[in-house]
Design goal:
single chain, 191 residues, mainly alpha, 11 helices
Length: 191
Amino acid sequence: SRVPDAAEREAITLRLADVLETKIGDISGAVDRYAEVLERSPGRRGGGAALERIAADDQHRHRVAVVLEPVYRAAGDRGKLVGALEAQLESIDDRDQRVGILREMAENYTKLGRLDLAFDCRARAWLVDVASADTLGEMEALAVSARQYGPLVATLQKGAVEAIDPDLQAQLWGISAKPCEEQPDDAAQAL
């Protein structure tokens, strides 16, 4: 008997994955088979498209995101990469990991020219750890460049309410007043 070549093996694996998914209802098994194909051939269309379809199912979203993240990263598809990263956030509780992923998402949105979404990710990262001066500085700088004064004020005020340290609370209330003084028309939308 002859050994199938790589292309035949991938085609067989894709067919098996499809049968597992559509005929047997073994979605986890199908995800595993699609993942095998993508590990061997990241550019293979069928596996990625099938996984994107499966990602609509909340039960499998995280696993699919983990499989697709390196594929999107290698392809340079920033839009889909941030989607995969967002899906991974749903099951990550570690503060540092959450902040790291949100920062990466912000960088990708910035490169995509979506400063509003980049700001949202920076704000979410800061709200995970309101004591982080670095993340606060990144968020403020992005808010200024994106003219997101109202959302900045709203985020700062939310952080001030959530902060445990009274000194930090006072500092954040003071910082939140600055955009209102400097950009009253733009910041008024948050008040």
